[in-house]
Amino acid sequence: MRVCWTAYLVKLAGDLNAAASVYRYVLNRAGVGAPFEMAGNSSPGVMIYPRVLQDAILYVITSETAKDVNLDLRDKLGGGRRRCAFQHNTRP
Known about the structure:
Number of helices: 1
Distance between the termini: 44 Å
Number of strands: 5
Mean pLDDT: 81
Low-confidence stretches: none
Strand content: 25-35%
Radius of gyration: 15 Å
Structural class: alpha+beta
Number of domains: 2
Strand order of the largest sheet: 1-4-5
Order of helices and strands: HEEEEE
Oligomer: single chain
């Protein structure tokens, strides 16, 4: 087992692109691959949590960005494609 350690919380980095790069590097080094592919660039403030079930994959998608985001992902296992838009809500 390998452990990746950072001196500071990566999530609290002022630059979300830098945090996303660290996460991507660690996952690649660990040989962990996502069961989906993104078409185009996604926002670094968007996290996608795939949960592989017996007959399906559940995607939980969260956004921590203050911008509107359009996602276009293709499921590698089933071949399905999903497009979705997230709109930033400024109301309390």
